[in-house]
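Limitations
The structure tokens in this dataset are predictions for the assembled complex, not deposited experimental models. Users should treat interface geometry with appropriate caution, especially where small molecules or nucleic acid strands are included. An illustrative entry is reproduced here so readers can see what is and is not provided.
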Amino acid sequence: MNYWLLKSEPGSFSIDDLARAPRKTTCWDGVRNYQARNMIRDDMKKGDLAFYYHSNCEVPGVVGVVEIVREAYPDHTAFDPEDHHFDPKSDPENPRWFMVDVKLVEKFSRVVSLRELKEYADGKLAGFRLLAKGNRLSVMPVSSAQWKFIRSLSKGK
DNA sequence: GCCAACGTTGGC
DNA sequence: GCCAACGTTGGC
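Predicted assembly:
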């Protein structure tokens, strides 16, 4: 089983939006980066767990856990000219972008903020992709050691 | 294949 | 709102 981190802007779709969604499940649409696409398409498996990360907001950080409940399938929002994520270079015959479905497992009782995670950049979280300079990936792998550590932070304080 | 211009991301 | 970092595009 693999662990992941998924970024979402809470202004667009927050963990509370997910909590209110039918079956607490949503399709993770709108990924338009090839590295992220490849991980979604090739490496994300049903049953994998992912941190839900709020980006571009007042307190960026990890806010909960989701489970991958459906493996990669074409991101249909790329086919819709009305959609914000429309990409004319993707078509149903030869889809360029993919998405998975995720289900809410747990919303943390507190935010594990980016600021807090950075405190461990040279220790427990050395090498964590999220903390790498200039990192902009919206989907990234998390090692099991990193997972356990961040999970323990969420339960502390 | 190079690289400048441009758009996006995302912390602050 | 600013701006640095990065990815993509397209002319050559």
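Some entries come with short summary sentences. For this one: Chain A has a mean pLDDT of 94.
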